Amino acid sequence: MSKTGVTVGSSTYEKLKHDIIFGVLAPGTKLKLGPLRQSYEASVSTLRETLNRLASEGFVTAEEQRGFFVSPVSNKDLIEITNLRVLLECHAIRKSVVAGGTEWEGNLVAAHYKLHQMEKRMATGDESEKETWKRFDWEFHLALIQACDSQNLLDLHAIIYDKYLRYQMLVLTYRGQVAVEEHKAIFDAALARDAELAGRLLEQHIQNGLDHTLAALG
Amino acid sequence: MSKTGVTVGSSTYEKLKHDIIFGVLAPGTKLKLGPLRQSYEASVSTLRETLNRLASEGFVTAEEQRGFFVSPVSNKDLIEITNLRVLLECHAIRKSVVAGGTEWEGNLVAAHYKLHQMEKRMATGDESEKETWKRFDWEFHLALIQACDSQNLLDLHAIIYDKYLRYQMLVLTYRGQVAVEEHKAIFDAALARDAELAGRLLEQHIQNGLDHTLAALG
DNA sequence: TCTTTTAAAATATCATATATTATTGCTAAT
DNA sequence: ATTAGCAATAATATATGATATTTTAAAAGA
Predict the structure, then answer these.
(1) Contact indicator for B73, B174 with CB cutoff of 8 Å
(2) CA torsion A97→A102→A108→A110, rounded to 10°?
């Protein structure tokens, strides 16, 4: 999902975050400094810096003098995260669709094209590149809101999206043609500069994804 | 605003965050580890943990291999932060006003009472306890949204609120009787369980605060 | 003036020491 | 016997100072 940063700290951060989001480290797992030191090839200090960052973002839970844990998951948390994603992303898409210029349009077209190519591969049953597919999904959603003109909003959204992604990865299944059509509809509404429609379609899209995930979680 | 945590790390975090929010450390200041080590009486590693946390939250800006800076301020950033606060807090108050029980009402009444007492003191020109006043302001706004039933939303809001507070502290002046009446109106609407009205009044209240701050910043 | 070299400062990383928490095994009481 | 309380020990987290890299600044050379 991202290359190995230049410093030990940043690459450790990337690796740990990836392993939490993609379920390599199960929810609730105790993150003991000693063992982590070996598996991530970093010193205690570097690991603690990383864990503190991840704790601020909510992927890790820190208990004073008792150490770090992979944050637990729950249906309630998933629903809260989804509601926040709807709140932030729908607000952002409305701003973005109104403000976006030609540059924005170009990036959006490119992002949708790439996502659609991958969706076609997924439709054939080729599930060898789920991570790539999810990355293109992320890039498409990011492209939609990119022109919202608020870095603070984009930053917040990125974290919430990653938390949402973690739940998706727990049950990762392809939602199929329906989701493809939803993406297309949002894409068309955005290019047509219909901010309200784009917002409504996006909300429905995210809501459907939640239902799908909740059903898969049982 | 917060007590001196039990570990060196947590108390350093509290102190540094406080000093950034309350302007002791000016925006843009380079945070060199050596000097910090002395003024905050903590080791390099402990300081780096703290700075990484604050960087995640946006109070500090980290540049790979170039160190840490107090995040800069700008009118654009203030406007972005305010818009996010409106988005999050108004959403939360609507949920909260609908869902709140007697416990919530009680806390809200208490919070408003305390805030109002302090407002009366401020009105007399007694500006000796600005920090206390701002804390009661925070507690009132928190009490309003407390029952929104989303810890994720409350966590996000707390960070955004602190960022907003930092801008207030740069120009700290008492907005006077107008703000007092706005608080009272929001309070009444909340107790009357008029979620829509409470949301609208809150949005206007925050917007007015922004105008006041922008005017003071010049 | 521009590039290259050198010296100083600052950051990133580590290994180790200290403090805290968790575990184990024992004793005594019900 | 079983369990509650308590001590001793092990495991773990926290904190520090020292070291290795990297960046920045200054000086020298073209």
Answers:
(1) no
(2) 170
Largest CA distance in chain A: 55
Per-residue pLDDT of B14-66, as tens digits, reads 999 999 999 999 999 999 999 999 999 999 999 999 999 999 999 999 999 99
Q: Give yes or no for a contact between A92 and A154, defined as CB atoms under 8 angstroms apart.
A: yes
CA distance A58 to A70: 9
User: Could you tell me the two tokens for A30?
Assistant: 């105790």
Residue B130: pLDDT band with limits 50, 70, 90:
confident
Interface A–B counts its CB contacts (< 8 A) at 70
- Contact B15/B8 with Cβ under 8 angstroms? no
pLDDT tens-digit profile of B193-202?
Answer: 999 999 999 9
Sign of CA dihedral B191, B196, B201, B202: positive
The side-by-side arrangement of strands in the sheet containing B30-31 is B30-31, B67-70, B60-63
**How far is the CA of B120 from the CAs of A152, B115, B177, in angstroms?**
35, 9, 9
Amino acid making up residue B67? G
Alpha-carbon distance A114 to nearest alpha carbon in chain B (angstroms): 31
A6 touches chain B (CB under 8 A): yes
Mutation site, B10, B11, B14, B53, interface A, largest A CB count within 10 A: B53
Model's pTM, two decimal places?
0.95
Q: Are A60 and A68 in contact (CB under 8 A)?
A: yes
DSSP annotation of B147 reads: G
Cα separation of the two ends of chain A: 28
Q: Judge contact between A88 and A160, C-beta under 8 A.
A: yes
Both tokens of residue B49? 């943990």
Per-residue pLDDT at A2 exceeds 50: no
Burial A151-176 (b: 16+ CB within 10 A, else e): ebbbebbebbbbbbbbbbbbebeebe
